């Protein structure tokens, strides 16, 4: 089923401008499966003549010819040769989807395409769009310095999931609280957003009890697309999903040696399953790095589906088990939504342009309650760190003013550990929560605290 096209205005504008140019264009579009690459490309060529070919693992020369012959007269008479094909496709829009399949069948296609571009297509108005979901292969074989195609592309676009606010296009009438619940399942990935129906919990329970539920098999499908042996990758992903974000924690959870884990982690990062994060303003090669699942669907699957697969397969799983733990799970999801919100509305909220944003964590010997580690949920900094805002983010309802004040005081204490302290720096502190009474918000805002809840995020 072709995905409904929602949002992606910026990316669509980039593609349309390239397609309108009076010169040769070689566009490379890639990103994880299900992120909406094909829908974006087909939207960009609406009302235009184009050749679209979805590459397979075998016989691509013959299959490509068949597709072209349906649109171009006498194309079937050409010999089976990429150069002959492209010579007869001059000045046309040519889309090759899942291009890594062509490379897998014959790596010579890269050198052939280089020669075709240089000798035949460069002086024309031909538009070539190569699309692929195997991120590591697209980056190493198509975009890297070692690739025969290096220097030929005129534009490249790595398509990422939509941000939290873009997902509203799929559910324009839904409250932000319910949208956060769906976002915790789907992230901003169009394929999953298209699958979801409201009310969310009713749909989820029904889908998990279907014989052909895509949720049960989706992660196996994604992993097997990238890796041959998926069992160790699954163990590592499960460890991270349950909050084990440091190498030693992952090692202890999986019972694997740290040296054995490293190559798997590297591959998971290359394929966009995992991301490496460092504390804000920490040097890139810091040993204090943490590892997180790249999208919410993976986090949801390994947290709730993978541990319950037997019950789900037997059709005796009750979705209430997920509901009971879901509010706790949504803590990190809400942080991600708030981050998107601050980036989108930084001028309105902070009165400065954000140049750096992220978590901050570290160790101290003088922390209360016997702790030696601390974490600040989100720090937003302006140019030269002259303006900085510290935030605590809670997926909960604050009913009492004293609870909010206590949270702000704790945040102030932790913010003293932030490096490069400067008396001239303008510092502010704030809380984002699911719900806060208006009277409490107004009172604390008079003291210049940044106090926001879902209703504020909706109206702003």
Shape: globular
Q: What is the tally of beta strands?
A: 12
- Radius of gyration of CA atoms, rounded to a whole number: 25 Å
CATH arch. level architecture of the largest domain: Orthogonal Bundle
Q: Total helix count?
A: 21
CATH class group of the largest domain? Mainly Alpha
Helical/strand content category? alpha/beta
State the distance separating the first and last CA atoms.
35 Å
**What share of the residues does DSSP label as strand, in percent?**
15-25%
Q: Say which CATH homologous superfamily of the largest domain is assigned.
A: Winged helix-like DNA-binding domain superfamily/Winged helix DNA-binding domain
The figure for the number of domains is 3
CATH topology of the largest domain: Arc Repressor Mutant, subunit A
Helix content bin: 40-55%
Give unreliable regions as ranges: none
- Specify the biggest β-sheet: 5 strands, parallel
In spatial order, strands of the major sheet run 2-3-4-1-5
Q: Taking all residues together, what is the mean pLDDT?
A: 93
Give your account of this protein's structure.
- It is a single chain.
- The chain is of the alpha/beta class and 460 residues long.
- The chain folds into three domains: 150 residues, 3-Layer(aba) Sandwich (Rossmann fold), CATH 3.40.50.300; 165 residues, Winged helix-like DNA-binding domain superfamily/Winged helix DNA-binding domain (Arc Repressor Mutant, subunit A); 115 residues, 3-Layer(aba) Sandwich (Trna Endonuclease, Chain: A, domain 1).
- 45% of the residues lie in helices and 17% in strands.
- It is built from 21 helices and twelve strands.
- The strands form three sheets. It has a five-stranded parallel sheet with strand order 2-3-4-1-5, sandwiched between helices. Strands 8-9-10-11-12 form a five-stranded mixed sheet. Strands 6-7 form a two-stranded antiparallel sheet.
- Strand 11, helix 20 and strand 12 form a beta-alpha-beta unit.
- Helix 1 packs across helix 2, helix 8 crosses helix 17 and helix 12 packs across helix 13.
- The longest helix is centred in the last third of the chain and has 25 residues.
- The two termini are 35 Å apart.
